[in-house]
Amino acid sequence: MKISLNWLKDFIALNEDVEVISEILTDTGLEVEGLEKFEEIEGGLEGLVIGEILTCAKHPDADKLSVTTVDIGTDQPAPIVCGAPNVAKGQKVVVATVGTTLFPEGGESFKIKKAKIRGEVSEGMICAEDEIGLGQSHDGIMVLDTDLPNGTPAKDYFKPESDTVIEIGLTPNRADGASHYGVARDLKAAFRRPTVFPELSNFKVDNQSNPVAVTVENHEACPRYSGLTLSNLQVKESPKWLKNRLKSIGLSPINNVVDVTNYVLHGLGQPLHAFDMADIGGKKVVVKTLSNGSKFTTLDEKERILTDKDLMICDDSKGMCIGGVFGGIGSGVKDTTTEIFLESAYFSADWVRNTATRHGIKTDASFRYERGTDPNMTVHALKYAALLIKEVAGGEISSEIVDIYPEPISDFEIYVKYKNVDRLIGKQVPHDRIKEILEDLDIKISDELGEGFKATVPPYRVDVTREADVIEEILRIYGYNNVELEENYGADYLAAFPIPDKDKIQSKTTDFLAAQGFNEIISNSLTNPDYVAKTGIWNPALNVEVLNKLSEELGVMRQAMVFSGLESLKYNINRKQSNLKFFEFGRTYTFQDGDYREQEQLALFLTGDQTDESWNVDKKSIDFYNISSTVHKILDKFSLAEFDSVPTSNPVFDYGLDLLKDGQLLVSLGKISPKVQKVAEVTQDVFYAEFNWAKMLKKYGKKILYKPVPKFPEVRRDLSLVLDEHVSFQQILELAKKESKKLVKRINVFSIYQGDSIGEGKKSYALSFILQDENKTLNDKAIDKTMNGLIASFENDLNAIIRK
Fold it and tell me: What is the per-residue pLDDT for 644?
């Protein structure tokens, strides 16, 4: 949304720099996304001066050129070659000096340079009005009637308007800020100075010669409808000031009547619509819906098929306008219009939003109506627009104001407790300051007690309906930056913290796995009871049997996800598709202690080669680290950075790990045992992970860990250890953390060796150690001390031999 600074100053006195105003607006919630310069005349006439032609003679080598000398206020007159037919001695003219950039009407810009034209020196240009963007004429140079001194900047004579335009990223909840007056109301509270509303005291009805009968049949869609007529108008081009206001915010002027309606819309936030009285059949305006399938042609010449949920402004026989959305092609203001009916209404936001969406129409009016306008503004805006139309188009107000408002919309009444204000803001704001802020925001305070007060909120603040909303109003004006942050501060809320949306989490996990090359499978929860019987891993007594079996092969509900996935792997492998990555969200079922239980799980399956066969990639089979990497990435997505890792006790696996958080098993992963694979008739190695999805969801996002980016560099040192083959890498990690947990940040195994050269029952680990001090740069003394301590621990506790 664009806001003109000059226009804004009509509503509130502003002497501050625009950068200061922008900062204040951003702090109050109307975020300023950019500033741009608006110039009535592009270039602002910079470099153009008023000059006087001292001499003028025919060019010796060109019949249509003249050689002049022009006094432009410098020590020496400027020689200028001119091709205009009306150039003459003694004229006051506009001169573009050397170095000036001109922006001609309808052409490309160019820069004035010192030149020789047919042998004559020319140091400037005497301008026609189209050459400097002042008009269309190119019949000759501009001749001025002025006594201003030679050398006076041309902008001091023509006085072109310039403006600064503030680009505001209006959020959907701030419908009250969708106008210049709305922005001024926030500045009123921020600067504690009054706003100025347009003067309406001189409004009067000139006569009642042209009344219109108005009927509202649908008060749900149109709670308030106001209007009046104006007669004896002259539709023409708008005056300069009005066109400049509209151009500054990116609107194209149309004619003086339509321009006034746009001016009031963007000035006060109240949409208006002008109907040509000559097209209002029977001088009747009826606000109603038409039957399903009715056809209506809008201003863009598109035929719309209406529904009985589209509110229409009609006359006695036809539709004239889609209420609050778009006008009709037949009833708008034209060059021949002399009488208008001017509408100012309050339409239901829901009705306008649904109609605008249904027909794919977005207008400045619908933008405001579908967010919520001010029901108390309709008559004020109507009077203001009528006075402006009389000013720019003449005529008179020829009817009383029609104002149909059967059920006035009440203010919002909200009780606010001071303890909640202090709790949510995180600081005790003085009660007097709270009342000042709210009153400056047109929120009235009443029924004050020691613990709180009643806030009465005007209906144009559609986003302030709860206690938390009132507190937000206090905070945004008081200033988020004025609330000091301390280490023990935390976020608070009025309602219970929202439960994570399990469907969204599952969808995000699905997207992640698909991006990793996995394919999702959906398998039957019914399975073959032989799987349980032949493996001996699960207890057949826990099976949930199906009473009306379709077949013996689908006789029980599955106790585990593993065989469903293995069946899918088998089906694909038998069809020569051996490199497979599957995942499945599903449930497992058991009957325990006289009760049926089901558990949500996520299962991952990997088998085959890591990549498809290629000439430039060595063939390598999927291994444990592939499944482990994927599992850890999923845990990272859940903000589960710290967990315990122990060898798995699940007999499904030949080997693997169980990952636990707070003693609860989250996931088991590893290589499926040959026994299980044999029962499923899968012949190639399969790596499998089984997530307890219900527990994962409970742990989701409970804690997000953050550490600042270190300022000091890290250092790498390598060690080669010969160990007994039963010593695990986990033992090395735990010993290293115990010995030097502050400086050792990461440990990695980059080579493993077992062979005759190091002896039977031994293995060699090549390890890299990453050391870093977060407070200073490490020196050799500190590094050597840490590494020597690690070596001593490895030798003493693990019987390691350090290979030199």
Answer: 83
Would the pLDDT of 492 be above 60? no
Q: Tell me how far CA of residue 201 lies from CA of 169, 383, 536, 655, in angstroms.
A: 35, 10, 94, 89
- Could you give the number of structural domains in the chain? 6
Contact in structure between 639 and 701 (CB atoms under 8 Å):
yes
**575 and 639 together in one domain:** yes
Measured CA distances, 29 to 72, 79, 476, 478 (Å): 50, 57, 7, 12
pLDDT > 60? residue 493:
no
The region of weakest confidence among 496-500, 583-587, 599-603, 669-673 is 496-500
Comparing CA positions, the residue from 568, 588, 585, 582 lying closest to residue 630 is 582
Alpha carbon distance, N-terminus to C-terminus of the chain: 70
- The three-point CA angle 292-294-298 to 5° equals 130
Can you tell me the distance from the alpha carbon of 545 to that of 631, in angstroms, rounded to the nearest whole number?
A: 32
Tokens of 429: 């704001």
Nearest to 768 by CA among 749, 741, 793, 742: 749
Q: Are residues 515 and 621 in the same domain?
A: yes
- DSSP conformation class of 758: G
User: According to the model, what pLDDT value does residue 592 have?
Assistant: 85
Indicate which CATH number applies to the domain containing 142: 2.40.50.140
The pLDDT value given to residue 706: 63
**Res 334: pLDDT:** 94
At 760 the pLDDT is: 86
Residue-wise over 713-733: b if at least 16 C-beta within 10 A, else e? eebeeebebbbeeebeeeebe
Region class of 403: left (phi > 0), else alpha (psi between -120 and 50), else beta: beta
Amino acid identity at 559: Q
Q: Looking at the predicted structure, is the pLDDT value of residue 432 above 90? A: yes
Residue range 320-345, pLDDT digits in tens: 999 999 999 989 999 999 999 999 99
d(CA 46, CA 690): 73
Alpha-carbon separation of residue 347 from 207, 274, 322, 343 (angstroms):
29, 16, 11, 12
Average pLDDT over residues 145-160: 92
Produce one character per residue of 154-175: b if its CB has 16 or more CB atoms within 10 Å, e if not: bbebbebbebbbbbbebeebbb
Q: How far is CA 296 from the centre of its chain?
A: 34
Chain segment 78-117, per-residue pLDDT in tens:
999 999 999 999 999 999 999 999 998 777 889 999 999 9
| Longest Cα separation, the chain | 118
Report, as an integer, the average pLDDT of 29-50.
91
DSSP string, 366-386: HHHHTT---TTSHHHHHHHHH
Q: What is the dihedral of CA 277, 278, 283, 288, to 10 degrees?
A: -70
The boundaries of the domain holding residue 154 are 48-158
Q: Judge whether 280 lies within some domain.
A: yes
Residue 133 lies in a domain: yes
Half-sphere exposure of residue 156: CA atoms within 13 angstroms, side-chain side: 11
d(CA 581, CA 604): 8
How far does Cα 151 stand from its chain's mean position?
50
Please list, in sequence order, all residues whose beta carbon lies within 8 angstroms of the beta carbon of residue 167, skipping any fewer than 6 positions away. 1, 2, 3, 32, 33, 34, 35, 36
Residues near 548 by beta carbon (within 8 Å), at least 6 away in sequence: none
Token pair of 59, please? 């060019």
Rounded mean pLDDT of the chain? 91
233 and 92 in one domain?
no
